[in-house]
Design goal:
disordered N terminus; 103 residues; alpha+beta
Length: 103
């Protein structure tokens, strides 16, 4: 499901994984330096079935992308809070991501 590397060869979500995430009905996925499409696949903004980002969003899966510091999380389960800035008529914005771990 995930393939590791750097640049365009960094980890990615393939179509099977995206389908599984949607069918599992997760609420959101947080990612750090992971592509939501197979490297080398053209980005088709206006074709939702071919656009992995749109497929996730239309499938009810929120995306929290470009997170940093995930390697600092120790526990397997945490309480995640995302505080986005207030914007209208957009599909993405910056957010302050907070993770609370049980002591």
């Amino acid at each position: 499901m995930l393939a590791w590397g750097a640049g365009e060869n960094r980890p990615f979500l393939d179509e099977t994984t995206i389908d599984w995430l949607i069918q599992t009905r997760i609420k959101a996925i947080g990612m750090e330096n992971i592509l939501s499409r197979t490297p080398g696949t053209p980005f088709k903004r206006d074709d939702p079935p071919q656009n992995p980002d749109a497929r996730l969003l239309l499938g009810g899966v929120g995306m929290i992308d470009a997170l940093v510091g995930l390697d600092q999380i120790v526990k397997q389960r945490v309480f995640f809070i995302a505080l986005p800035i207030r914007m209208h008529r957009v599909t993405a914005s910056w957010t302050r991501a907070i993770v609370l771990e049980e002591q």
